[in-house]
Amino acid sequence: MLPNFLLEMWCGECYTTGTSHLFHVASPVTHGDQKGNAKETLETKERLQGVWKGKIRDPMDFLRARDGEHLMTPFECDLCIFRKLRKIDPRPDNSQDELLLVCIRRINLDAFWARASTTVNQNRRQVNASLKFSKLLGLPGSFEHKGPYPTHDHCGYEVACNMLLHSKNKGRHDPTHTQFATIRRLRSVYSNQCRAAPQANITHLSMVDTKGKYSRLADLLRTSADLFGFKDS
């Protein structure tokens, strides 16, 4: 039987893609010419620059984690996620297992980099300050992390892996990759199927607001908004 948790931890700078740059990483540093029209190209560059416009980016941005990521994003190590998905340990020299581990690492880094470094660092400093204040009062701190996480794929890593592999296809505007606006449709496909499944129609919660907007909640959708950084409409 596989253990449910590992007695180890990661530091931010150690959690990197290493030399496995299998997937495209969009940033003002790596952004190249595209085949779209001038307006689309300008909009893409402005979107990538965003709040960092005019600042020099670190070449390692998006390729490594930062200390304090786990305080803002649900995180489990690559091995734990692998065990959830495959129910076995990774096998040496197995190409499928190696590819899955690369996908898991990229997914975690993408989730981390949904927030700027300044946001992550400031949040970490505030947590440390709060813990010091609690220590002065003889208290353990107000932050709880009662684990372990569920043993099933509760964040939707398999769907995210499919999206990553889809991004390797030739895109409309760039021959090296397919853009996010296209690959995100796989998540919508999964959500649609879940809503049509018997499990989602047995037990659910429906709510209607004063404007007549209808919302239906079910526990079948295993795609974490915190992990993906967005919600389907």
What structural keywords apply?
globular; 40% helix; mainly alpha; 2 strands; 233 residues; 2 domains; two-stranded antiparallel sheet
Major sheet details: 2 strands, antiparallel
Uncertain residue ranges = 29-36, 229-233
CA distance, first residue to last residue: 40 Å
In total, how many domains does the architecture comprise?
2
What is the helical fraction, as a range of percent? 40-55%
Strand order of the largest sheet: 1-2
Determine Rg (CA atoms, Å).
Answer: 20 Å
Structural class: mainly alpha
- The tally of strands reads 2
What is the helix tally?
A: 9
- What is the N-to-C order of secondary-structure elements (H for helix, E for strand)? HHHHHHHHEEH
- General shape: globular
Q: Please tell me the overall pLDDT.
A: 79
Please state roughly what percent of the residues sit in beta strands, choosing from under 5%, 5-15%, 15-25%, 25-35%, 35-45% or over 45%: under 5%
Any overview of this molecule?
It is a single chain. The chain is mainly alpha-helical. The longest helix is centred in the middle third of the chain and has 20 residues, at about 115-135. β1 and β2 form a beta hairpin. α3 (about 95-110) crosses α5 (about 155-165). The chain has 9 helices and 2 strands. It has helices spanning about 40-50, 80-85, 95-110, 115-135, 155-165, 180-185, 185-195, 200, 225-230; strands spanning about 205-210, 215. The two termini are about 40 Å apart. It has 2 domains: about 1-25 and about 60-150, no CATH class; about 155-233, no CATH class. Residues about 30-35 and about 230-233 have low confidence and may be disordered. The protein has a two-stranded antiparallel ribbon.
